[in-house]
Amino acid sequence: MRLDKVTVSRVVKDTTAALCRRQNEFIKWPRSDVEKNKIKAGNFRIGGFPNVIGAIDGTHLRIQPPTTDEASYVNRKGYHSINVQAVCDADGKFTNINTSWPGNAHDAHIFRTSQVCTHMEKTPYWESGILLGDSGYPCRPFIMTPYARLANEDQTRFNRHHARTRCVIERTFGRWKRRFHVLHSEIRMKPERVCSIIKACAILHNIALWMNEPELPEDQEEEMPNIDAVYNGANDGRRIRDHITQMYFTH
């Protein structure tokens, strides 16, 4: 069956819109203690870090230069992109995703203005679980980042277990992009359409995991951590980070 480009474009647009309308059914933040405890246990098995309900990171998806507000889409590496922030669980399912920010937006700003941050600021930190982020995020009571300057072996162990546990989000981005080739090439649509396409691909990724769909071979480079961006603002989670280090990583 041969379809013209107009028909294909319309079908993709309609299907994407239908998926996005049902986002909350497929990309869900853990609410119950049972859900949270399952994720915490899974993350502990991965890297030995306690109480983690999610790993958070950003990834840049390349787009064609837009005709409006073009400069804001140029990221620090010099190409046009959407900066996608996502949180995943221990199985690599997305539990939250934000696809609305242009490439020059900083990860910390995206997080600070996100629903995830607002939610976690209102809940008891330890009981509700914590996120793991890289050095581009602030160290807050509910999001732990690695030590920038290591003072002792305990902090080294903290960073090692933090990295092992947090890398699930990098692997998830890699798996996601292998499933959907559109995500690792230049997306030639308007930013508004791109954001919807990205969100739909995240929904389909979760559905594929729930249905145990086979994955493509790992024929592309693994998502690399963001080692250049360092957050320099307030870090009111440092005492909790030190407490976690003393409780779990002091031998």
TrEMBL record:
Record carries keyword Coiled coil: no
DDE Tnp4 domain: residues covered: 56-206
Membrane spanning residue stretches: none
Name of one Pfam family that matches: DDE_Tnp_4
Keywords, ordered alphabetically: Cytoplasm, Hydrolase, Metal-binding, Nuclease, Nucleus
Keyword Nucleus: yes
Named cofactor requirement(s): a divalent metal cation
PANTHER family, alphabetized: NUCLEASE HARBI1, PTHR22930
Protein name per its UniProtKB record: Putative nuclease HARBI1
